[in-house]
């Protein structure tokens, strides 16, 4: 059980890194996309750990599906980023303020 | 996990299969014709719109003719019952109305890509999957399918700075909320090793007989909180609403119509499916969360809307206010809660169809080439002289949103408050009534701008076309004459929400 806790703590720390990477990042949108990817991979690690220690296959199936969907998601995200870069000419977080109330 | 697919499963799944096949065939057709030099690279957008209407009509027949029974299919990933059948029918009818709304705006907004309607069919397919999910895994897949489609739709105007920025914001916060949802699912799975709704509900029923809520492991409750937070993000309920006004302002109006009408309702159905059936025993926890969100979304949705000058932002805050009311209906967890929720949603769909039909037809006409969508509320001045019918229908719809008695919006709020009183949430009802009184101020302010303000330069509008007028009159007439025989609609919705 101690081993399981190590894996879980690693997963949760990765998840928190992902969240902080999104909110504390002031420079680059690409870094935000990387942290989003990190978020989902951390959850995958959690799923794998749970599935191994519960001795249940569903977690691994879940993890595979999450991986494929996350790949599609990051493809769409990068496409949106490329389109944005073509128009605005930069990918700085500080400059996404065209729309605001 | 053994996957066995019966013939009867496929029999239930026929409408969705038909939708999928249609998407493939339409994709081949679109790519073949739009890149063909012999036909002169035709723009297929309008053609696709009418094809979508035909497809939806066929699926309407397929869905109405499915037999009435309760079952789960694809080893209990999805479920089917009789009320779901009628809800799907309603979605298809609204989808046809939506096509009629946007089909003329496509040439005005120069949205000359046929993929738009393909993505619309796919989003209806994913909505069907979402409202029939019966497993935590299938929640993730179907929600993600809807989200991926919507990220693309938000940025469909590639050359506009506003649209791409809105798409980027929508993407980042959407993926973040999906991450929260997945984290919650992972915690629940890791704690009890179950993902199916029936198994979850059986587990919680048995555990709540023996233990009190304090003895339930904290990871389980944390997972519940994460999942509900993700849902509130997707619904743009108040503490998590910051993306929605920006996205609504930046994206094209015809696509915002899709977002506002379809997403909130589907996600509320999913919320009811998940929290009302499988996690029902933990209602002490999630009722508090929904109450907090209802409070904040009523409060912020009203008071921030005062300060808005742009009409789409105003609509975003107005929809946050609506979410607050629906959240009240959800949090009063008796059986009438579900029924009042469906009733509120039907009227919400009607109101939004009407308000977007009038907004989409208000395009300022400069000359033959340039016309643009109205953005600011102040541009509505003298609308009562230049466009009297639209002005009058906006008046009816805004009265309906604010809840002036003979119009349908009043009855929705009444039923929500009555169900809320039944589960003795008195202070929340008093607060909601006060807030809705205050909210009438800013709806009536728009009516004042339309009818009583004067300006020197009168705007000229592009004339309204037949299909949008059809949708607008449908919505306004139904909202107005609802009071003549309210029992008809109320009873039919009651029947839909009670049959299982």
TrEMBL record, chain A:
<protein>
    <submittedName>
        <fullName>NADH-ubiquinone oxidoreductase chain 4L</fullName>
        <ecNumber>1.6.5.3</ecNumber>
    </submittedName>
</protein>
<keyword id="KW-0472">Membrane</keyword>
<keyword id="KW-0560">Oxidoreductase</keyword>
<dbReference type="InterPro" id="IPR039428">
    <property type="entry name" value="NUOK/Mnh_C1-like"/>
</dbReference>
<dbReference type="GO" id="GO:0016651">
    <property type="term" value="F:oxidoreductase activity, acting on NAD(P)H"/>
</dbReference>
<comment type="similarity">
    <text>Belongs to the complex I subunit 4L family.</text>
</comment>
<keyword id="KW-0812">Transmembrane</keyword>
<keyword id="KW-0813">Transport</keyword>
<feature type="transmembrane region" description="Helical">
    <location>
        <begin position="6"/>
        <end position="24"/>
    </location>
</feature>
<keyword id="KW-1133">Transmembrane helix</keyword>
<keyword id="KW-0496">Mitochondrion</keyword>
<keyword id="KW-0520">NAD</keyword>
<dbReference type="Pfam" id="PF00420">
    <property type="entry name" value="Oxidored_q2"/>
</dbReference>
<feature type="transmembrane region" description="Helical">
    <location>
        <begin position="31"/>
        <end position="53"/>
    </location>
</feature>
<dbReference type="GO" id="GO:0042773">
    <property type="term" value="P:ATP synthesis coupled electron transport"/>
</dbReference>
<keyword id="KW-1278">Translocase</keyword>
<dbReference type="InterPro" id="IPR001133">
    <property type="entry name" value="NADH_UbQ_OxRdtase_chain4L/K"/>
</dbReference>
<dbReference type="GO" id="GO:0030964">
    <property type="term" value="C:NADH dehydrogenase complex"/>
</dbReference>
<feature type="transmembrane region" description="Helical">
    <location>
        <begin position="59"/>
        <end position="85"/>
    </location>
</feature>
From TrEMBL, chain B:
<dbReference type="GO" id="GO:0016020">
    <property type="term" value="C:membrane"/>
</dbReference>
<keyword id="KW-0496">Mitochondrion</keyword>
<feature type="domain" description="NADH:quinone oxidoreductase/Mrp antiporter transmembrane">
    <location>
        <begin position="135"/>
        <end position="438"/>
    </location>
</feature>
<feature type="transmembrane region" description="Helical">
    <location>
        <begin position="168"/>
        <end position="198"/>
    </location>
</feature>
<dbReference type="InterPro" id="IPR001750">
    <property type="entry name" value="ND/Mrp_TM"/>
</dbReference>
<protein>
    <submittedName>
        <fullName>NADH-ubiquinone oxidoreductase chain 2</fullName>
        <ecNumber>1.6.5.3</ecNumber>
    </submittedName>
</protein>
<feature type="transmembrane region" description="Helical">
    <location>
        <begin position="48"/>
        <end position="66"/>
    </location>
</feature>
<feature type="transmembrane region" description="Helical">
    <location>
        <begin position="252"/>
        <end position="274"/>
    </location>
</feature>
<feature type="transmembrane region" description="Helical">
    <location>
        <begin position="286"/>
        <end position="307"/>
    </location>
</feature>
<dbReference type="Pfam" id="PF00361">
    <property type="entry name" value="Proton_antipo_M"/>
</dbReference>
<dbReference type="GO" id="GO:0016491">
    <property type="term" value="F:oxidoreductase activity"/>
</dbReference>
<feature type="transmembrane region" description="Helical">
    <location>
        <begin position="424"/>
        <end position="444"/>
    </location>
</feature>
<keyword id="KW-0472">Membrane</keyword>
<keyword id="KW-1133">Transmembrane helix</keyword>
<dbReference type="InterPro" id="IPR010096">
    <property type="entry name" value="NADH-Q_OxRdtase_suN/2"/>
</dbReference>
<feature type="transmembrane region" description="Helical">
    <location>
        <begin position="86"/>
        <end position="106"/>
    </location>
</feature>
<feature type="transmembrane region" description="Helical">
    <location>
        <begin position="469"/>
        <end position="496"/>
    </location>
</feature>
<keyword id="KW-0560">Oxidoreductase</keyword>
<feature type="transmembrane region" description="Helical">
    <location>
        <begin position="314"/>
        <end position="335"/>
    </location>
</feature>
<feature type="transmembrane region" description="Helical">
    <location>
        <begin position="17"/>
        <end position="36"/>
    </location>
</feature>
<feature type="transmembrane region" description="Helical">
    <location>
        <begin position="341"/>
        <end position="362"/>
    </location>
</feature>
<feature type="transmembrane region" description="Helical">
    <location>
        <begin position="137"/>
        <end position="156"/>
    </location>
</feature>
């Amino acid at each position: 059980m101690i081993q399981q806790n190590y894996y879980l703590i690693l997963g949760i720390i990765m998840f928190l890194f992902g969240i902080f990477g999104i909110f504390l990042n002031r420079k680059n949108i690409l870094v935000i996309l990387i942290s989003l990817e990190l978020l989902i991979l951390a959850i995958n690690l959690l799923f794998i750990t749970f599935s191994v220690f519960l001795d249940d296959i569903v977690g691994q199936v879940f993890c595979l599906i999450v991986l494929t969907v996350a790949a599609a998601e990051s493809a769409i995200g990068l496409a949106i980023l490329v389109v944005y870069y073509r128009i605005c000419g930069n990918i700085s977080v500080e400059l996404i303020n065209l729309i605001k109330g | 996990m053994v996957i066995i697919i019966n013939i009867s499963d496929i029999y239930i799944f026929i409408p969705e299969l038909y939708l999928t096949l249609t998407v493939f065939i339409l994709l081949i057709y679109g790519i073949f014709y739009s890149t063909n030099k012999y036909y002169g690279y035709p723009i297929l957008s309008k053609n696709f719109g009418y094809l979508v209407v035909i497809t939806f009509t066929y699926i309407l027949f397929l869905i109405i003719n499915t037999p009435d029974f309760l079952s789960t299919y694809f080893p209990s990933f999805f479920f089917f019952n009789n009320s779901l059948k009628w809800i799907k029918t309603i979605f298809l009818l609204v989808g046809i109305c939506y096509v009629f709304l946007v089909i003329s705006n496509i040439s005005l907004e120069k949205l000359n890509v046929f993929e738009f309607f393909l993505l619309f069919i796919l989003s209806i397919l994913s909505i069907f999957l979402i409202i029939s999910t019966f497993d935590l895994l299938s929640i993730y897949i179907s929600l993600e399918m809807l989200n991926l489609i919507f990220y693309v739709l938000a940025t469909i105007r590639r050359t506009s700075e506003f649209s791409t920025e809105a798409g980027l914001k929508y993407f980042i916060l959407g993926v973040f909320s999906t991450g929260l949802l997945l984290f919650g699912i992972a915690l629940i799975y890791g704690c009890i090793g179950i993902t199916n709704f029936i198994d979850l509900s059986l587990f919680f029923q048995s555990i709540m007989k023996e233990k009190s809520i304090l003895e339930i492991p904290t990871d389980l409750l944390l997972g519940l909180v994460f999942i509900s937070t993700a849902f509130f993000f997707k619904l743009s309920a108040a503490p998590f609403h910051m993306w929605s006004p920006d996205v609504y302002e930046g994206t094209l109006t015809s696509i915002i119509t899709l977002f506002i009408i379809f997403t909130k309702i589907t996600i509320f159905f999913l919320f009811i499916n998940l929290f009302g059936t499988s996690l029902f025993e933990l209602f002490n926890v999630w009722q508090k969360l929904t109450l907090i969100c209802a409070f904040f979304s009523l409060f912020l949705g009203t008071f921030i809307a005062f300060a808005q000058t742009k009409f789409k932002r105003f609509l975003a805050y107005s929809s946050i206010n609506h979410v607050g009311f629906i959240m009240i209906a959800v949090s009063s967890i008796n059986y009438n809660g579900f029924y009042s929720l469906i009733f509120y949603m039907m009227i919400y769909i009607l109101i939004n169809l009407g308000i977007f039909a009038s907004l989409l037809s208000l395009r300022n006409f400069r000359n033959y080439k340039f016309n643009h969508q109205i953005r600011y509320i102040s541009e509505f001045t003298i609308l009562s002289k230049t466009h009297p019918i639209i002005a009058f229908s906006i008046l009816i719809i805004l009265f309906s949103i604010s809840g002036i008695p003979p119009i349908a919006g009043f009855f929705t709020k009444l039923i929500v408050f009555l169900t809320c009183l039944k589960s003795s949430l008195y202070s929340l009802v008093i607060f909601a009534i006060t807030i809705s009184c205050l909210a009438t101020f800013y709806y009536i302010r728009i009516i004042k701008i339309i009818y009583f303000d004067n300006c020197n330069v009168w705007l000229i509008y592009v004339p309204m076309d037949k299909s949008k007028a059809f949708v607008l009159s449908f919505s306004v007439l139904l909202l107005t004459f609802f009071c003549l025989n309210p029992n008809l609609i109320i009873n039919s919705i009651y029947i839909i929400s009670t049959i299982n």
